[in-house]
Amino acid sequence: MASGHYCTPLHRDVSATERDLLQRLLTRRAPARLADIEPLRVIAVCGCGCGTCPTVLFGSSPADEPVTRDHFILADYLGLTPKGHLVGVIVWANEQR
User: Fold this and answer.
1) In the beta sheet, which residues pair with residue 86?
2) pTM confidence score
Protein backbone atom coordinates (compact mmCIF):
# COMPACT_ATOMS: atom_id res chain seq x y z
CA MET A 1 0.00 0.00 0.00
CA ALA A 2 1.40 3.34 -0.96
CA SER A 3 1.04 6.24 1.41
CA GLY A 4 -0.48 9.35 -0.03
CA HIS A 5 -1.66 12.74 1.03
CA TYR A 6 -4.87 11.28 2.43
CA CYS A 7 -3.63 8.32 4.45
CA THR A 8 -0.52 6.66 5.81
CA PRO A 9 -0.31 2.86 6.16
CA LEU A 10 -0.53 1.53 9.71
CA HIS A 11 -1.49 -2.02 10.61
CA ARG A 12 -2.89 -2.76 14.06
CA ASP A 13 -5.86 -4.28 15.83
CA VAL A 14 -8.94 -2.14 16.36
CA SER A 15 -8.84 -0.74 19.90
CA ALA A 16 -11.61 -1.50 22.38
CA THR A 17 -12.65 2.16 22.26
CA GLU A 18 -12.86 2.15 18.45
CA ARG A 19 -14.81 -1.12 18.45
CA ASP A 20 -17.24 0.22 21.07
CA LEU A 21 -17.77 3.43 19.10
CA LEU A 22 -18.41 1.47 15.89
CA GLN A 23 -20.90 -0.78 17.67
CA ARG A 24 -22.77 2.20 19.12
CA LEU A 25 -22.90 4.06 15.80
CA LEU A 26 -23.91 1.07 13.71
CA THR A 27 -26.51 -0.08 16.23
CA ARG A 28 -28.23 3.29 15.83
CA ARG A 29 -27.63 3.98 12.14
CA ALA A 30 -26.85 0.73 10.28
CA PRO A 31 -27.67 -2.36 12.35
CA ALA A 32 -27.46 -4.63 9.30
CA ARG A 33 -23.70 -3.91 9.19
CA LEU A 34 -22.91 -4.86 12.83
CA ALA A 35 -21.46 -8.23 11.80
CA ASP A 36 -18.92 -6.36 9.65
CA ILE A 37 -17.16 -5.02 12.76
CA GLU A 38 -15.67 -8.30 13.99
CA PRO A 39 -13.06 -8.85 11.24
CA LEU A 40 -11.95 -5.22 11.04
CA ARG A 41 -8.34 -4.10 11.45
CA VAL A 42 -6.86 -0.61 11.22
CA ILE A 43 -5.00 -0.43 7.90
CA ALA A 44 -4.16 3.29 7.72
CA VAL A 45 -4.36 6.60 9.56
CA CYS A 46 -4.89 10.17 8.45
CA GLY A 47 -1.96 11.42 6.41
CA CYS A 48 -2.40 15.15 7.00
CA GLY A 49 0.73 15.26 9.13
CA CYS A 50 -0.69 17.12 12.12
CA GLY A 51 -0.12 14.18 14.43
CA THR A 52 -3.39 14.68 16.30
CA CYS A 53 -6.10 13.48 13.89
CA PRO A 54 -7.90 10.45 15.28
CA THR A 55 -8.91 9.36 11.76
CA VAL A 56 -8.38 5.66 11.07
CA LEU A 57 -9.19 3.58 8.01
CA PHE A 58 -10.44 0.03 8.50
CA GLY A 59 -10.11 -3.09 6.41
CA SER A 60 -10.84 -6.78 6.91
CA SER A 61 -7.30 -7.82 6.11
CA PRO A 62 -3.84 -6.25 6.25
CA ALA A 63 -3.77 -6.62 2.47
CA ASP A 64 -6.81 -4.35 2.02
CA GLU A 65 -6.26 -0.99 0.39
CA PRO A 66 -7.88 2.03 2.05
CA VAL A 67 -11.13 3.13 0.43
CA THR A 68 -10.79 6.83 -0.30
CA ARG A 69 -13.38 7.21 -3.07
CA ASP A 70 -16.64 5.67 -4.28
CA HIS A 71 -17.89 5.50 -0.71
CA PHE A 72 -20.86 6.78 1.25
CA ILE A 73 -21.64 7.82 4.82
CA LEU A 74 -22.85 4.75 6.71
CA ALA A 75 -23.21 6.46 10.09
CA ASP A 76 -22.40 9.82 11.62
CA TYR A 77 -22.74 11.50 14.96
CA LEU A 78 -22.06 14.88 16.57
CA GLY A 79 -21.43 15.35 20.26
CA LEU A 80 -19.55 17.34 22.86
CA THR A 81 -16.37 16.40 24.68
CA PRO A 82 -16.33 16.66 28.48
CA LYS A 83 -14.79 20.13 28.00
CA GLY A 84 -17.64 21.22 25.73
CA HIS A 85 -15.81 20.99 22.40
CA LEU A 86 -17.76 19.83 19.37
CA VAL A 87 -16.67 16.47 17.98
CA GLY A 88 -17.93 14.61 14.94
CA VAL A 89 -17.61 10.99 13.89
CA ILE A 90 -18.25 9.67 10.39
CA VAL A 91 -18.18 6.02 9.34
CA TRP A 92 -17.65 5.71 5.60
CA ALA A 93 -18.30 2.50 3.68
CA ASN A 94 -18.57 1.17 0.17
CA GLU A 95 -20.58 -1.72 -1.24
CA GLN A 96 -17.78 -4.23 -0.53
CA ARG A 97 -16.93 -3.16 3.04
Assistant:
1) 80
2) 0.82
